[in-house]
Amino acid sequence: MPFQQPPLPFAMDALKPFLSKEQLHYHYDKHHAAYFKNLNALVEGKPEAEMPLTEVVIQSAGPIFNNAAQAWNHSFYWDCMKPGGGAPKGDLAAALKRDFGSVENFKKEMTEKAVKLFGSGWAWLAADPNGNLEVLPLGNADTPLKHGKKPLLTIDVWEHAYYVDYHNERPKYVEGFWNVVNWDFVEKNLAAT
Ligand code: MN
Question: Where are the domains of the chain?
Answer without folding.
Answer: 21-79, 90-191
